[in-house]
């Protein structure tokens, strides 16, 4: 797992972004950036050679599920792994996310250990 | 219909009417019919009158209920403000806590660094294998360590108190949310009153609201408060993992 990879954290609550940022730093990933919804995130992704996206689902503006679909549609972005970290817990939603090409799905509230485990799993698969 | 059907004309009157028509007494026959009609239309007018009065009274009551006015003008904006305030307070508490944690981490790191510095000479001392020069070095390191530890311990205590104090939002936001819950409850009662007042008209509305809910199966819903009581949601990360692995993840 390369620790210097560039990660975009997308969540409308700044505290949640801060928590994820801190947890990622604890795991050795300090090259992190933040966006508060899909509309802010998408142009950042298009211009910023990001390696990884952690996104919430429920956000004003563009929601996380739509951001995921946009990423998968875009030839330049479709290879980026997307980890969803959300309170959305309906089975239908999780299936929708899986079918849209999500790489991992973490339900809030979550623990540092869960985040670590899911990240490791995603990187394992990619390599 | 459980009510017994009542004829609009009595048998005696009908017989009288037939007799009159048979004798060609048209004028008197017409009179009987007019009498019957006016009797039933009088009853109808009475009923319409009663209904009009009821409707009038209901609307009057509705307008007189100043509570509804104050709900719309004051309480709702107030509730919105309260909820915004809850977001603000929880935001502040979370940041206050994280500030303190971030300030504690380097203290823990330097604590560990200093112990690592002292450790080699300390181990030598414990195994009675320490030269005089090393002993002096150890004393200096230990002295330094003790001095710094006093102020570090004090800082840690302050940050921990800060974290403790930052949790006070729970009490305050709890009270605010409780007030909003009371308001919602009151509005619910008013809405039920309105629905009973307008009775049947509200039923089709109910159905369409349900239909809308059905359509939006993947619509964002936010945190689920009663996950264990619902079949359409997962209950925790293990459920998510099971579902995903059943999809071949």
What topology does this entry show?
The complex is a heterodimer of chains A (127) and B (249).
Chain A: E1 7-10, H1 14-26, E2 32-35, H2 38-47, E3 52-55, H3 64-73, E4 82-86, H4 91-99, E5 104-107, H5 112-126
Parallel strand pairs in A: 1-2, 1-3, 3-4, 4-5
Helix pairs in contact in A: 2-3
Chain B: H1 11-22, H2 26-64, H3 66-126, H4 132-166, H5 169-198, H6 203-215, H7 237-246
SSE ordering of chain B: HHHHHHH
Low-confidence stretches of chain A: none
Instruction: Say what the CATH topology of the largest domain in chain B is.
Output: Helix Hairpins
How many structural units, i.e. domains of chain A?
1
* Helix residue percentage of chain A: 40-55%
CATH superfamily of the largest domain in chain B: Helix hairpin bin
Q: What portion of residues of chain B is helical?
A: over 70%
- Round the mean pLDDT of chain B to the nearest integer and report it: 83
- Give the class of chain A from helix and strand content and strand pairing: alpha/beta
Mean pLDDT of chain A: 92
CATH fold title of chain A:
Rossmann fold
Count of DSSP strands of chain B: 0
Q: Any idea what the shape of chain B is?
A: rod-shaped
What quaternary form is this? heterodimer
Based on the structure given, which CATH architecture of the largest domain in chain B is correct?
A: Orthogonal Bundle
CATH homologous superfamily (4th level) name of chain A: Response regulator
């Amino acid at each position: 797992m390369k620790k210097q990879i560039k990660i975009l954290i997308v969540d409308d609550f700044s505290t949640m972004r801060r928590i994820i940022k801190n947890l990622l730093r604890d795991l050795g990933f300090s090259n992190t950036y933040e966006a508060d919804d899909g509309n802010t995130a998408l142009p950042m992704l298009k211009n910023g050679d990001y390696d990884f996206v952690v996104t919430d689902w429920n956000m004003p503006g563009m929601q996380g599920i739509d951001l995921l679909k946009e990423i998968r549609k875009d030839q330049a972005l479709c290879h980026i792994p997307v980890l969803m970290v959300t309170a959305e817990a309906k089975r239908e939603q999780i299936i929708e996310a899986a079918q849209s090409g999500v790489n991992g799905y973490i339900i809030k509230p979550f623990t540092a250990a869960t985040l670590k485990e899911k990240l490791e799993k995603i990187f394992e698969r990619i390599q | 219909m459980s009510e017994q059907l009542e004829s609009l004309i009595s048998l005696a009157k009908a017989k009288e009417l037939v007799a009159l028509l048979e004798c060609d007494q048209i004028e008197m026959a017409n009179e009987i019919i007019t009498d019957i009609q006016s009797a039933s239309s009088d009853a109808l007018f009475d009923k319409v009158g009663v209904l009009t009065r009821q409707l009038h009274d209901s609307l009057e009551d509705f307008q007189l209920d100043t509570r509804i006015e104050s709900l719309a003008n004051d309480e709702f904006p107030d509730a919105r403000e309260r909820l915004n305030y809850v977001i603000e307070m929880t935001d502040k508490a979370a940041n206050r806590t994280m500030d303190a944690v971030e300030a504690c981490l380097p203290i823990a790191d330097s604590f560990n660094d200093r112990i690592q510095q002292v450790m080699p000479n300390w181990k030598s001392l414990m195994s009675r294998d320490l030269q005089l020069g090393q002993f002096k070095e150890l004393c200096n390191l230990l002295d330094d360590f003790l001095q710094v530890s006093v102020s570090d311990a004090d800082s840690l205590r302050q940050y921990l108190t800060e974290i403790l104090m930052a949790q006070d939002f729970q009490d305050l936001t709890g009270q605010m949310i409780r007030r909003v819950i009371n308001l919602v409850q009151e509005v619910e009662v008013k809405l039920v009153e309105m629905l009973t007042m307008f009775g049947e008209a509200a039923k089709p509305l109910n159905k369409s609201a349900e239909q809308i809910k059905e359509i939006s199966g993947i619509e964002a819903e936010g945190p689920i408060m009663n996950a264990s009581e619902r079949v359409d949601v997962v209950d925790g990360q293990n459920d998510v993992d099971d579902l995903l692995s059943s999809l071949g993840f």
